[in-house]
């Protein structure tokens, strides 16, 4: 569970970076520059794929935390990782489904 929570945290970080890259590219295109935000296109693609795929991992993580909460099993994960991952899951739901 500790390794999975760190993978989810890494993917959530990629989600934030992917959103920032999207804004940067949007403003570059407005200015007439059609180059990518990062000169290394494979790196940008990897960040975007990990970032946008993070919602699936975050959903699995949220259901696992709900399961641990329901059966009252002690959680050994640091609270900041749990709060960050669940908070990012809420942000991702808003980003993909509401906005």
Write a concise keyword list for the protein shown above:
99 residues
Describe the fold and architecture:
With 99 residues, the chain is mainly alpha-helical. The chain is built from 4 helices and no strands. α3 (54-70) crosses α4. The longest helix is centred in the N-terminal third of the chain and has 29 residues, at 2-30. The two termini are 31 Å apart.
Percent of residues in β-strands: under 5%
SSE topology string: HHHH
What is the helix content? over 70%
The overall strand count is 0
List low-confidence stretches: none
Tell me the major beta sheet.
none
Structural class: mainly alpha
Form type: elongated
Q: Give the integer mean of the pLDDT values.
A: 87
Tally of DSSP helical segments: 4
End-to-end gap: 31 Å
Query: Using only CA atoms, what is the Rg?
Result: 16 Å
What is this entry, summarized?
79% of the residues lie in helices and 0% in strands. The chain has 99 residues and is an all-alpha fold.
Present the secondary structure layout.
Elements: H1 2-30, H2 41-52, H3 54-70, H4 79-98
Helix pairs in contact: 1-2, 1-3, 1-4, 3-4
């Amino acid at each position: 569970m500790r390794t999975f929570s760190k993978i989810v945290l890494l993917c959530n970080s990629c989600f934030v970076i992917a959103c920032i890259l999207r804004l940067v590219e949007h403003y570059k295109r407005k200015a007439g520059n059609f180059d990518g935000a990062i000169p290394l296109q494979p790196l940008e693609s990897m960040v975007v794929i990990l970032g946008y795929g993070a919602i699936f991992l975050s959903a699995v993580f949220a259901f696992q935390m709900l399961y641990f909460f329901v059966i009252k099993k002690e959680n050994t994960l640091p609270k900041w990782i749990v709060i960050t991952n669940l908070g990012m899951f809420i942000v991702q739901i808003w980003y993909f489904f509401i906005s």
